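Thread: Modeling a multi-component assembly for a lab meeting

Hi all, long-time lurker, first post. My supervisor asked me to bring a structural picture of a complex we are working on to next week's group meeting, and I have zero experience with this. I have the sequence lines for every component (586 residues in total). Could someone generate the structure of the whole assembly? Inputs are pasted exactly as I received them:
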Amino acid sequence: MERRDFLASLGAAATLATGASGLPLRASDAPQPAAAPVSGRITLLHTNDTHSRIEPFGPGNGAISGLGGVARRATLVKQLRQQLGSVLLLDAGDTFQGTPYFNRYKGRLDYQLMRMVGYDAGTLGNHDFDNGVGPLVEAMESMEQLQHANPPFAFVNCNFDCKGAPALAKRIRPYLVREFPGLRVGITGVGVAFANLVAPKNHEGITWKDPFESLRPVVRRLREVEKVDLVVVLSHLGYNLNGTAPDDLQMPGQVAGIDAIIGGHSHTFLDTPTRVKQAQGETLVFQVGFGGVNLGRMDFAVARGAVKAASGASMPVLASA
Amino acid sequence: MNLKPSSALLPFLLAASLAAQVAPGKTERTPISAAIPEDPAIQSVITPLAAEIKATFDLPLVPAPKGLFRGRRGEENLLGYWVADMMRQSAQGVVGSPVRFAITNAGGLRANLRPGQLKVADIFELMPFENELVVVELTGAEVIQVVKEGLVRRGGEPCSGVKVVVEGTPEQATFAVTWADGSPIDPAATVKVATSDYLYGGGDSIPTLKKGRKPFTTGITLRQMLLDQCAALAKAKQDLLPPDPGRYTVPAPIQEAIRNKTFKL
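Re: Modeling a multi-component assembly
Sure thing. I ran the full set together rather than chain by chain. Output:
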């Protein structure tokens, strides 16, 4: 086991073990060689609101005519993975609804193809509930059962309380941690409110919670317990809702510690990510239209070492409640 | 899991460590164009399914012995009325409460339904777009304004739930909109209205529709809605027949002034 893996696992285990004393032994309390900064690079590739666009858009669709198509996307992803190595392929929801493929195959084809293309994680948009919870779970199940070299991809969401829908609950995790050479990445997700978007019978058993309040403890846990170097949020809230509801542009100011927001829902075509300044640092907010017309890309370089060890040593202790 | 920071410093420290560690690098969006070849393994999955989808285009839907037509100059758009009726009916089913008014755009109906046995492909020709059924709230006064805007622009966009009578001359016209049963529209009342995401988003210049409040995007494309309605008729062993005319009554000289863009209300 590499040193950083060991330290990370120790950090998580030690925190869990202390409990009531509230004084966990932290990974950063262990002596670290000051002259050995570890660094890594990661490329986030992403889509949003693909809306069952299995095939490219036909003619007569204006500027997006002839664009898109899952088979082409697969080629591009494969090329980039070969070139870059550390790659995550992510999706911000609304995979369902939009073409006869969805009407006929009820989302099973969409999720199966995502697995074949090599998605690592996705989140749920409002349209993914269009046929109700049962068919959504069936589509997930069919993706899990597919015989394919790629592993099933994960669904992340931290603001749907799925207690009343156990089959869905066990398929959605609040976050996912992936380890790459030199860095750990934490991925979580948030979904838009059901009101006026999803008919009540289609989200039976699932309660929507405030996305920012739901994100805060998850991001904190990713940073403090899971010791990730990069926090990524898959958001199906929408890019800019002009203050009418929580959106991606507000998120960095409301939740500290997010590096990248991969957005969806508003079908916003951004050429480059919007950089939202934080008190220190910045959060990149990106979204690449809809229908699989584009593939988004954000690269991050992460340097560990003296700075982190110094601040980490004085970081406050977490008390479990 | 409920973790609480024991120090108010935590957010600051998080931000500080973020700044020290992470350097965003290259960012871009790559159009998925024809310059990118298709992955053969993925395409081999899609090709037979695409053929299956296309085969469904030849499936029979429902008999339409009279056909449904958009109407020639001076005639009412009965095909549009049917689409608007289906929008109102489907919207009502989805929201579970009365939807008083529906409006669509004649420009979005791309083909007539010729008399005979309808096939799935006919509905795709009529409605090639992925426009979605949307339910919004408007006041009665706004409904009347929406009708007016559609009238001035195109001589009346296909609608459901109201009756429109224009009288007089192009220079001095009077304009009356009532509910379909002739009862008056209370300008202050809030009513549910079905339309498409295209019109609600500002397409085809019916600006008052954009004021719609509490939008409910149903997730149902207008095309799927029509396919479902045809299937339901077939199941009930009924024919698809055009709705009755009489929703818009507009004197010919005023219709001509509308076409010449000289008519104002």
